[in-house]
Specification:
single chain, mainly alpha, Arc Repressor Mutant, subunit A, 10 helices, globular
């Protein structure tokens, strides 16, 4: 295969992955069709099957790599709750849909084909990433609670349209999120300030 064809194939595969991430985030596994994914990617439907084999594999490759807390977990543990809180209050909830792993998971977890994949990725990747950073007793349980809080917060922000426009509102919301996360992620620091 010539270099141009290899480059075109790689670009087409990447466009399909981008389109799949967007559609799975927007509609979930059951409602996102491979034909509409191919159309969004401006690719032939046959290429979806050729590159990924199945819709299940497409979901695996398009969504699961994005299920990570790693970009938010850089630096001192004391600063991570603030970084996550800032991310949550500045997340674009109304813009054009791209891959949003939280939404893809929430909209797809009822499907018995992908639910085990989601559970495994959450348990083996996201929870483990977080619990490796959290110190103290019950790190894994506290990690699960952090993730549950963030999933619930994301869902409620979308349902209730809680994307504060005013700087004061945004700062107040960010502060509350940060304090909640500190209580879960840094319980020793919280106990010191209260005791």
């Amino acid at each position: 295969m010539s270099q141009n064809k290899q480059r075109d194939a790689a670009q087409t595969k990447d466009r399909i992955l981008q389109a799949a991430g967007a559609k799975f985030s927007q509609k979930g596994y059951d409602s996102a069709g491979t034909r509409e994914i191919a159309d969004l990617a401006e690719a032939n439907i046959a290429l979806v099957t050729r590159y990924f084999g199945s819709k299940e594999n497409l979901f695996r490759e398009a969504v699961l790599p994005g299920m990570t807390m790693a970009p938010l977990m850089i630096g001192d543990m004391e600063n991570i709750p603030a970084r996550i809180a800032h991310y949550m209050t500045t997340k674009n909830l109304d813009g054009p849909m791209t891959l949003d792993p939280t939404q893809a998971i929430l909209r797809s977890m009822g499907n018995e084909t992908v639910a085990p994949m989601i559970r495994e990725a959450l348990g083996n990747k996201v929870v483990d990433e977080l619990s490796d950073s959290i110190k103290g007793d019950d790190a894994k349980l506290r990690s699960i609670l952090v993730i549950a809080f963030l999933f619930g917060l994301d869902a409620m922000m979308r349902v209730m349209h809680l994307s504060p426009e005013e700087k004061d509102e945004k700062q107040a919301m960010e502060k509350l999120i940060k304090e909640t996360l500190e209580g879960l992620m840094l319980p020793e620091a919280l106990q010191e300030t209260q005791g």
